[in-house]
Amino acid sequence: MSLHLLLVEDDAALVAMLGQELRDMGHEVTVATDGRAALDAVVRDRFDAMILDIMLPQVDGLSVLQRLRQDAIGLPVLVLSALGRPVEKIEGLDAGADDYVVKPVTAAEINARLNAILRGRRQTVQEGDSLRAGDIVVSPARFRAWRAGKAVELSKIEFALLTELVRNADSIVTRAMLLEKVWGYDFEPATNLVEVHIRRVRSKLMADGGEDPIVTIRGVGYRLPA
Fold this sequence. Notes:
About 40% of the residues lie in helices and about 20% in strands. By secondary structure, the chain is an alpha/beta fold. It has 2 domains: about 120 residues, Response regulator (Rossmann fold, 3-Layer(aba) Sandwich), CATH 3.40.50.2300; about 100 residues, Winged helix-like DNA-binding domain superfamily/Winged helix DNA-binding domain (Arc Repressor Mutant, subunit A).
């Protein structure tokens, strides 16, 4: 799939390498070397996705993200940053990033992550601020969830887990992905955090006698049918 990408990065060597490798994959790549230029480019042109560094001159990456989301611009954004602590990842995701990857990273991984973001968006029906998968609807803005029209009361972590499954409906969401997105881990700790919370989400979704909507892919992760 050929994409029009906005690469926002002030490292000239990295821009040259990644830009060429992404073009070799068939993508059209536009480059912005600071945050202000990135915001201007989004206004001028139409992109399929943005690859965004955090530490930028003029306007930093987090501010770019916040401005986009405040203006209701839903452009998919993959953050590419040297800042890799869990708190920094969480900050980026909370600001509106669709995914967050730490440098160094290959163009092949960037391409795979962009495809996953776009696939998840295509397979999720969006209604206003809501996301739908089957008879499950979540509203991230209102922190509410429903199944078959009935409200489902979830904790913050449970809601974050369900939202990731809905956002990526019909795609496998791995345990590592959930640990990264929900808890901010970039490694897999020796813990059953994911399993425990998935079990709780399942229980609440089935409280009124409905079937278990979450498919377990043994040894891999989970999938929620669209």
